[in-house]
Amino acid sequence: MKKMFLLSAIVLMITGCNSGSQVASTIAKSDPIMPIRMSGETTHIVLTDYVPVLYGNPELWEGLKWSTADAIECVNLQGSPIVEEMDLVSRDNSLHALVFLDKSGSFAIPVLPDKPVRQNLISLGYAEDKLQVGFCEPVSNPSFEAYIQNTLIDHTLWQENEDGTWTLDLDGLQVTDNGLQGRTYLRIYAEDETYLFNDLLLPLQDGKIITDAAQLNRHDQQAQVLYSLMIDRFYNGNASNDWKMNSEEVLDIVDYQGGDIAGITAKIEEGYFDQLGVNTLWISPITQNPWDAWGCYPFEHGNKYDSSKTYTKFSGYHGYWPIYATQLDSRFATPEEFRTLLSTAHAHGINVILDYVANHMHINSPTLQEHPDWHTDSILPDGRRNFELWDEARLTTWFDKHIPTLDLERPEVCEAMTDSALYWLENYELDGYRHDACKHIPEAYWRILGQKIAARWPGRHIWMIGETYGSPELIGSYVKSGMLNAQFDFNVYFTTREALCGLKGMNEVVENELTSLHTYGAHHTMGNISGNHDQIRFASIAGEAIDLHANGKEEGWTQEIGIGDAEKAYKRALLLEVINMTLPGVPCIYQGDEYGEVGANDPDNRHMMRFEGLNEAEQEMRAKVAELIQMRRSSMPLLYGDFIVLESNEDEIKYARIYLGKKVIVTINRKELSYNITEE
User: Fold this and answer.
1) Quick one: average pLDDT of 632-657?
2) For the chain, which terminal residue's Cβ has fewer other Cβ atoms within 10 angstroms, N or C?
């Protein structure tokens, strides 16, 4: 039988008698630590997934003690002198906090019980430093845990009111003494005997709850609107770096088109993104790609570009075949041009996050030439080729024969690739990453990357969002304070797409959204997408120009995919934007979706961005999307309000976002292709 310890009883085992550490007060003031979510009575945790700065720093543990309720026990402590892993055992399945103390103060990690989650808790008002909260439906004997950053607020500051609401008195919090200057966040968790309720998140400025969205800035993660662009297909701002293969084996649609970093800078300066309203740009990879052609697509049914061709090879215009992990592709930018982009974006209040590829490198990369054993095996033990086995061989499968998957479970490979990621943060004022192919990369990589970033830049605003297709549980396994901030919520996207086209009920959109809220948290920053460079353009699906489940690549090569039924196309596409702009999370627009760009799948969904010559319907679509973005960014309920479902059926959904008593009510009817947004 394994020995069990009370957390409070293991302090001396971990810390000895040294009391020189002053780390607790620093962590208490840092970005909020994501909660530990119990899954059953016992949950295994890696402590540095929550507090990555502690990894590899024994000196930080000196004098750091642990404290928790008697109802929480630990089993199987691993690591010395730093405890890196443990099993948490909850004896009463209730809200708790894992508290760390030293002479400088304390910080706490919320521990959430394994209970069904209900969307029921809302903020009702704020006046004279007193916050009033309540429930949409009556609750008996609720209990609360409140945090500012990572400091647990004294329970005595809560008061029950005669009308069944509760008041949290923030007046006694000393801004200077408790490190509440600048931007901080108030988090509130609540439960009763049966349910865990949605958490509340309220941003503060100098200890005061923010009531006006004008006080927010680009570093407030929930206030982001993300715009995804493919550099080569966006805008040509510097003709001197234009380069094409001009190969008989490469059709022009998969050759370089001239888009570059200078083109993005030019559009920022022209005010395109300011007028649209987005404040975070996700740019495609900028690392050096090969100069020659690779891959092959055979045309079994011909192609619409050149009937004489029976196949095409591809250039690396997209950026996903890195030859060097730390070298700019000269077809996109010089280092000076890239720095100019970043400074220009920041001057306009816009973040820039970089698409980074860690899963694989091109087979001719000097790294793989020097270390030919650094990739996984392309042959499975049973003799099959290990290509595109996305789930069966998730951590080893190759995307193609010329881009071997790196064996990131080997420490030397993981160290090299995490250091390469740090290079871009070290040398350029980037605001984060979009990480490619996350589920194909072992958790160790994400932990080490998070630990290195936390150690190198403890106060820097860095937001990281990943790409994982899979279950909410798989997606959520990467979303932790020491790993990724968020991932794209493909499950909500796929369901919404089908529902708007009549293949599923609108109520299923709500059900999927509730699953996301209960899996990732009520105020997650998961990406709600309009599409991406790997999906059929939704406007073409919405107008029934192409079937949702068609072979998008093949039809893109052989058919001219247009808008189809224009009325359905633009109205359904707009409803998708309405949903994305009013749900919790971070809305993400793929370039061209703001005006209803058409196309099948890759490469037909990667046509050059159009800024001029839009037809009337496209101009109207872009104007309405800009209105939706401006509405979202100016509305505290849409940015930080809690999500409450009011009605839900096959054809219509109605929900509220509520913040400090202010409501935004959203109604979407797929049968009538209509929506209504009202403020109360």
Assistant:
1) 98
2) N
3-state secondary structure of 220: coil
Structure tokens given for 83: 């405890």
How far apart CA 313 and CA 298 sit, in angstroms, is: 9
Q: Is the peptide bond before 603 cis (omega within 30 degrees of 0)?
A: yes
Tokens of 408: 């990131």
Q: Looking at the predicted structure, is the pLDDT value of residue 11 above 70?
A: no
pLDDT digits (tens, 9 = 90+) for 507-540: 999 999 999 999 999 999 999 999 999 999 999 9
Torsion angle of C-alpha atoms 427, 431, 434, 438, degrees rounded to 10: 80
Written as six digits, the tokens of 438 are: 């996350």
The strand pairing partners of 117, in sequence order, are 196
Look at residue 94 and give its three-state secondary structure. coil
Pairwise CA distance, residues 233 & 609, whole Å: 6
Q: Mind listing the pLDDT tens digit for each residue in 195-231?
A: 999 999 999 999 999 999 999 999 999 999 999 999 9
Q: What are the structure tokens assigned to 48, written together?
A: 């540095």
For residue 478, what is the DSSP state?
T
| CA 26 and chain centroid, separation | 26
Nearest Cα neighbor of 56 from 482, 510, 507, 632 is 482
Q: Is 339 helix (H, G, I), strand (E, B) or coil?
A: helix
Look-up of token digits 């359904």:
572
Distance CA 640, CA 657 (A): 8
- Do the bridges between strand 586-590 and strand 143-148 make them parallel or antiparallel, or are there none, so unpaired? unpaired
Task: Give tens-digit pLDDT for 350-378.
Answer: 999 999 999 999 999 999 999 999 999 99
Contact between 533 and 571 (Cβ < 8 Å): no
As given in the structure block, the two tokens for residue 659 are 């913040």
Specify the DSSP element, H or E, that contains 419.
Answer: helix 411-427
pLDDT, residue 21, reads 59
Query: 10 Å Cβ neighbour count for 412?
Result: 10
Residue 75 or residue 590, greater confidence: 590
pLDDT per residue over 537-563, tens digit each?
Answer: 999 999 999 999 999 999 999 999 999
Where do the domains of the chain lie, and which CATH numbers do they carry? 1-114 (2.60.40), 115-210 (2.60.40.1130), 506-640 (3.20.20.80)
Q: Is the pLDDT of residue 675 over 50?
A: yes
Answer for the pair 375, 407: CB distance below 8 angstroms, yes or no. Answer: yes
Cα–Cα distance between 593 and 622 in angstroms, integer? 8
Q: Is the pLDDT reported for residue 293 higher than 80?
A: yes
68 and 7 Cβ atoms separated by less than 8 Å: yes
Question: How, if at all, do strands 121-127 and 166-169 pair?
Answer: unpaired
The token pair at 411 is 């420490």
| Residue 349: half-sphere exposure toward Cβ, Cα within 13 Å | 17
How many Cα atoms occupy the beta-carbon half-sphere of 342 within 13 Å?
18
Segment 263-280 shows an average pLDDT of: 98
DSSP E strands, 535-673: 586-590, 642-648, 652-659, 662-669
Per the CB < 8 A criterion, the answer to whether 66 and 99 are in contact is yes
